[in-house]
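Re: that backbone. C-alpha cells:
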C-alpha cells in the first residue's frame, strides 16, 4: 500500500516525504472503492523549510505552522492543539529523512508518520517529557491492539539538537536510523 508522510508538533527542517499527526483516512480501500492517490512524481524529493513552505507538495492539515530560520515551527497554544502538515503525494517503498527537534513538555507528543489510506503506519514518536528517547513502531490496517513491534531508542538531546531521523522502507524490511546509525 502506498503511503503518505505526515508530521506533527515541533519540526525544524524536513528533508523528504510527508508527515501526519492523527491516524485517520479519508477513504479506506479495504472497505470501499477509493480514488487513486497521487504518487511522488520523481525519484528524489527534498524540502528545506528554513527557506519557507513548499505549498505545492505540503498542506497544513491542522493548527498553526510558521516557517523561519529554524524551519517549520509547530505552535501549541492550548490543550488539544495538534499542528500537522502532510504531503499531497504518496510513495511505495523508499527512504524518508527528517531533520528535526522534538517539542518539549510533559503531555506533548511529536511524531513523524508514514501512513496509507488503509491505515498501514510506520512512525517515530517523541514524548515531550523524555528528551533522550524516541520510539519507533509500525501497524497494519489500523490495528493498534498490539504494541509489541515498537522499540525505544536513546537520543542525546531530541529537543535541543537537530537530529536526522530516517525510515528506510523496502519490500523486505523497515529500518529506522538516527543520525545515520541503524
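Recovered sequence:
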Amino acid at each position: 500500500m502506498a503511503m503518505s508522510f505526515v508530521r506533527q508538533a515541533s519540526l525544524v527542517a524536513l528533508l523528504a516525504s510527508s508527515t501526519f499527526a492523527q491516524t485517520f483516512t479519508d477513504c479506506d480501500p479495504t472497505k470501499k472503492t477509493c480514488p487513486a492517490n497521487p504518487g511522488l512524481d520523481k525519484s528524489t524529493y527534498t524540502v528545506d523549510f528554513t527557506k519557507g513552505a513548499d505549498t505545492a507538495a505540503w498542506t497544513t492539515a491542522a493548527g498553526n505552522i510558521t516557517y523561519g530560520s529554524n524551519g517549520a515551527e509547530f505552535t501549541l497554544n492550548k490543550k488539544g492543539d495538534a499542528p500537522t502538515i502532510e504531503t499531497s503525494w504518496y510513495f511505495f517503498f523508499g527512504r524518508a529523512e527528517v531533520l528535526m527537534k522534538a517539542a518539549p513538555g510533559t503531555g506533548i507528543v511529536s511524531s513523524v508518520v508514514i501512513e496509507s489510506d488503509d491505515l498501514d503506519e510506520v512512525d517515530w514518536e517523541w514524548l515531550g517529557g523524555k528528551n533522550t528517547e524516541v520510539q519507533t513502531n509500525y501497524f497494519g490496517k489500523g490495528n493498534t491492539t498490539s504494541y509489541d513491534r515498537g522499540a525505544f531508542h536513546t537520543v542525546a538531546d531530541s529537543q535541543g539538537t537537530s537530529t536526522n531521523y530516517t525510515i528506510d522502507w523496502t519490500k523486505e524490511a523497515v529500518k529506522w536510523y538516527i543520525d545515520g546509525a541503524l
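The domain at 4-24+44-178 is CATH 2.60.120.200 (Jelly Rolls). The first strand starts at residue 4 and ends at 8.
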